[in-house]
Amino acid sequence: MALIGSSHLGSLVTVDNEISSEINRRITSANKCYYGLLPYLRSKILSRILKILIYKTLLRPILTYGAECWVLSKKDENSLLIFERKVLRRVFGAMQDNGFWRIRYNHELYELFKEPNVVKTIKLLRMQWAGHVQSMEGTRAPKRLMQGTLEGRRSRG
What we know:
The chain is mainly α. The protein has helices at residues 20-42, 48-63, 74-92, 106-113, 118-134, 141-147, and strands at 5-8, 11-14, 95-97, 100-102.
């Protein structure tokens, strides 16, 4: 995997068009922000609703910046979901079960969160972007690229 590339408008563009490095960069950026906001997420004064709002307005946009053009592999999806669950576990905390404290299971986190997970959100963003491009004028570059066809024949194999 060649990481020779450059950062353009906050997104990493690599020579081989590998998106995993960009996703890892986004997760790292969101993780830095998470640790900056950790005192607020640990606070007993702030309500869960406010902590969820902090996640949705500050952390998730950092995590999903430029996600409209990402093609996610299962590994990338898993990395994004792991980060999201880490934040949600901090927000919702542990629970008492039969007199013992334990961390919440993944399905319990999403039941409490009551929002689509980050992967579903990214897929929704991609659909919104496709609709936006579809409604553009035919002369615009994104629409020409989306509706374009390749010339020539595909090589055998």
